[in-house]
């Protein structure tokens, strides 16, 4: 699929009003609001990762391997999806096809760059290491969700994982002019809850007894969101942490992400 969501947000930029040590974000004007195009997969290259639309034929075997399908660890990795166990590449393909069936819903593949990218990725080796999807898209209201997230071992707790979600948020809130980006996860999924907050989503509350999973388990769902009036500050925070100057010669962070703002 082609990226057709390169639109300029017709709403006005947010105003930031100083309030002593804190600031107040004034919501974007909706005077010129028009519905957005449906979300499309992202094609973008950062310093550490490339995000691409899923190619169902070539990427499913690579994702199966990257997420642990060949060594029997995949179902533990994706257990919080609330789906039945995936026993084969065909099972994974069927799930991905289901995700992409509704309009505005699409799967993105994460490819790790072999070295820091200088902007010319023609000859850069790229390894599939994970995925995330735009789901539950409501283009009329400018709302979409990042869901069905899976980071294989090669990208867990790396700069690439943070950058991938930075690129996804930028695409939705900046390139496509959406107003609200959601993140929902099981209350018991500690890593996903921590990731949402790390990436800059705000916790909104929990829906108790929200779902019965395919394995007949209860799911209480935690809701997070990032909205258009917050994006400039979230972007600055992520840009600061991801900058190469924030990492030493051993690849260790100099400052934690919290040092770059809320």
Which tags fit this structure?
262 residues; alpha+beta; two-stranded antiparallel ribbon; globular
Gross morphology = globular
Helix percent band: 25-40%
Number of strands: 10
Radius of gyration: 18 Å
Structural class: alpha+beta
The main sheet orders its strands as 3-4-5-6-7-8-10-9
- Poorly predicted runs are 8-23, 117-123
Q: Give the DSSP E fraction (strand runs of 2 or more residues).
A: 25-35%
Cα distance, first to last residue?
34 Å
- Biggest pleated-sheet summary: 8 strands, mixed
Helix tally?
6
User: What is the chain-wise order of helices and strands?
Assistant: EEEEHHHEEEHEHEEH
Average of the residue pLDDT scores: 89
Report on this structure.
- The chain is an alpha+beta fold.
- 25% of the residues lie in helices and 29% in strands.
- The chain has helices at 56-66, 74-77, 89-100, 159-175, 190-199, 231-242, and strands at 15-19, 22-26, 44-45, 49-53, 106-113, 126-138, 143-151, 180-186, 202-212, 218-227.
- The strands form two sheets. Strands 3-4-5-6-7-8-10-9 form an eight-stranded mixed sheet, with helices on both faces.
- Helix 1 crosses helix 3 and helix 4 packs antiparallel against helix 6.
- The chain is globular and about 45 Å long.
Tell me the layout of helices and strands.
Layout: E1 15-19, E2 22-26, E3 44-45, E4 49-53, H1 56-66, H2 74-77, H3 89-100, E5 106-113, E6 126-138, E7 143-151, H4 159-175, E8 180-186, H5 190-199, E9 202-212, E10 218-227, H6 231-242
Parallel strand pairs: 7-8
Antiparallel strand pairs: 1-2, 3-4, 4-5, 5-6, 6-7, 8-10, 9-10
Helix pairs in contact: 1-3, 4-6
């Amino acid at each position: 699929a082609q990226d057709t969501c390169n639109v300029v947000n017709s709403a006005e930029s947010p105003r930031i009003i100083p309030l002593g040590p804190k600031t107040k974000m004034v919501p974007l004007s909706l005077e010129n609001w028009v519905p957005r195009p449906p979300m499309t997969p992202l094609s973008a290259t950062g310093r550490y990762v490339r995000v691409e639309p899923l190619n169902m034929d070539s990427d499913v075997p690579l994702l199966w391997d990257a997420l642990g399908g060949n060594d029997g660890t995949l179902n533990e990795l994706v257990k919080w999806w609330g789906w039945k166990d995936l026993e084969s590449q065909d099972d994974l393909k069927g799930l991905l096809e289901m995700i992409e069936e509704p309009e505005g819903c699409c799967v993105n593949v994460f490819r790790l760059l072999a070295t820091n990218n200088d902007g010319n990725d023609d000859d850069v080796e790229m390894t599939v290491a994970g995925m995330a999807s735009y789901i539950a898209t409501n283009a009329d209201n400018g709302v979409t969700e990042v869901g069905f997230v899976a980071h294989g071992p090669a990208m867990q707790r790396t700069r690439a994982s943070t950058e991938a979600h930075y690129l996804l948020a930028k695409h939705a809130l900046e390139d496509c002019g959406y107003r609200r980006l959601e993140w929902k996860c099981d209350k018991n999924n500690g890593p996903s809850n921590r990731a949402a907050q790390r990436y800059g989503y705000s916790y909104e509350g929990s829906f108790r007894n929200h779902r019965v999973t395919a394995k007949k388990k209860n799911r209480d769902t935690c809701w997070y969101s990032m909205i258009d009036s917050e994006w400039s500050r979230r972007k600055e925070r992520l840009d600061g942490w991801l900058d190469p100057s924030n990492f030493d010669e051993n690849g260790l962070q100099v400052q934690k992400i919290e040092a770059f703002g809320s």
